[in-house]
Design goal:
single chain, binds ligand 0O2, 6 helices
């Protein structure tokens, strides 16, 4: 084997190892989140997570992101600078669920929260809303422990609907959507925010009504 073949072999080996770590991290964090959800249902009889999606970023998307941020394509740069190679998305019904879940995740002793971006309190100019956390989870191999990064995105169903559509449009126009489409998307983001606020109000009203019904039936016993 000549030097370039040797280098290629080593690159393939380290790519496979790195991908193995990211896949393992998704499994670890995914299981953790399912357990948190199940415990919440067990105690409060309420399901904060509607559904969980996970994905590993494609090699093309990793390379694009490195290029966009001015880094050469290398495995070291990808591990150091692309924080969302392993991604988990938690989709919930209400905005209040998002903050409750973020707090529960922050309290997990074996997860380290590296950073938090609250695009709900501070939406992007596009109208994008979501709560992002970068965490590391220790992956126990036979001879070492590797802290591996996972991006957790938490959003409501309505925010997820908007973001998925906007993402498709963004890619269709390669980031240069006509102005009227961007404006319409911003208007839709406004509608999504109003819908989320209304749904939360409605849910709170239902909870209050249920509580007072229970109190009334307690009084009459
Ligand atoms: P893709 O194709 O979804 O993977 P950072 O280096 O962490 O400071 P980064 O990675 O841009 O910068 O962080 P950020 O803002 O938390 O974004 C991470 C991911 O959130 C993006 O990954 C998107 O998935 C999603 N996201 C962020 N902004 C938008 C937006 O305006 N619209 C939509 N639809 N999604 C968004 P990628 O790698 O950009 O894209």
């Amino acid at each position: 084997m000549d030097a370039s073949q040797q280098k290629f072999r080593e690159d393939v080996d380290s790519w496979e190892t790195v991908m193995f770590l990211y896949n393992s991290a998704i499994k670890e964090v995914g299981t953790k989140l399912e357990i948190l959800n199940d415990e919440f249902v067990h105690i409060h009889k309420y399901n904060p997570i509607e559904y969980i999606k996970s994905r590993i970023k494609t090699p093309e998307s990793i390379v694009k992101k490195l290029k966009r941020n001015g880094y050469e394509s290398s495995i070291q740069n990808m591990v150091d600078h692309v924080k969302d190679i392993a991604g988990i998305r938690l989709v919930c019904s209400f905005t209040s669920d998002i903050y409750q879940l973020a707090e529960m995740i922050g309290r997990q002793n074996d997860l380290t929260v590296l950073s938090v971006k609250d695009y709900i309190k501070h939406p992007k100019s596009s109208g994008y809303k979501s709560f992002h956390m970068i965490v590391t989870v220790p992956i126990f191999l036979s001879d070492r422990v590797v802290d591996t990064k996972v991006e957790i995105q938490i959003r409501t169903i309505a925010m997820d609907f908007w973001a998925s559509l906007e993402h498709k449009i963004y890619y269709k126009f390669e980031g240069n959507a006509p102005d009227y489409i961007s404006r319409d998307l911003q208007a839709c983001a406004e509608i999504v925010s109003n819908l989320d606020a209304k749904m939360l109000q409605l849910n709170e009203a239902v909870l209050r009504a249920k509580l007072s019904q229970e109190e009334d039936s307690g009084d009459s016993e």
